[in-house]
Amino acid sequence: MAIDRRWRLARCRVPCASFHSSSIQESPDSRSHFRWLLDFPRQRVALWSCNQPQESESMNRNSLTLALCLWGAVALASPPNPEDVAKRLVQSTGIAQGDLVRVSGSTKDLPLLTAIALEVQKAGGASFFDLTSDESVRRICHEVPAERDAGNASATLKLISAMTADISVSPGTNPQLCSDVDPARLAARGKAFQEANAAYTKGGIKAINLGNG
Question: CATH number for the domain including 118?
């Protein structure tokens, strides 16, 4: 399957063509929107949360952000090759022997995600997929009962304790998919995952996000 979109690394996070591997400030968003947990604060896992406006927070110092302009004028002329992108992502994240890597993104980006998983294996690590879609976002918002929040959060903590690296391709999820859900329900869900958010931020996980747009 051809990749017909261009990817942006760490979209809107750092200046063009720059590397930053220490702490980063993330600007607050004035609009409430939904995100996948293990987005702590950027990545994705198949559990939704409501991201309310909040003060800027310092990112995990071990997170790695790689900016746009990776390919310069060449990238603007033609879509990037998924194998080339995967190699750069795995190298930039610093995947090493024994790393357990979560590879996440939309089902629409499966060729790229597959290439990333292959590069992780070549680097001596192991990976697992976390796939999202508009349908999964909508159904999780509407069908997961409140009494399952604690169990979902506990399982997420187990994932965080096991994984050592996180490579995500932003799925570009439509926030309107869950716009009709009671705000109180969303707030309760988000509160249940506060401990998981904190654990990810403090866990020393090597992380990189590839913006998709």
Answer: 3.40.1830.10
Classify strands 165-169 and 100-106 as parallel, antiparallel or unpaired. parallel
- Expressed in angstroms, the distance from the first to the final Cα of the chain is 18
Name 105's bridge partners.
131
Domain that holds residue 31: 7-212
Q: 168, 176, 142, 201: which is closest to 36 by C-alpha?
A: 168
The pLDDT, as a whole number, for residue 211 is 85
Burial class of residue 86 (count of CB atoms within 10 Å of its CB; 0-12, 13-18, 19+): buried
Residue 1 lies in a domain: no
Q: What is the mean pLDDT of residues 45-62?
A: 38
Q: How many domains does the chain have?
A: 1
d(CA 166, CA 160): 10
Q: Are 163 and 206 in contact (CB under 8 A)?
A: no
In eight-state DSSP terms, residue 178 is G
Selected residue with higher pLDDT from 152 and 51: 152
Residue 155 within any structural domain of the chain:
yes
pTM confidence score: 0.67
pLDDT of 212 reads: 63
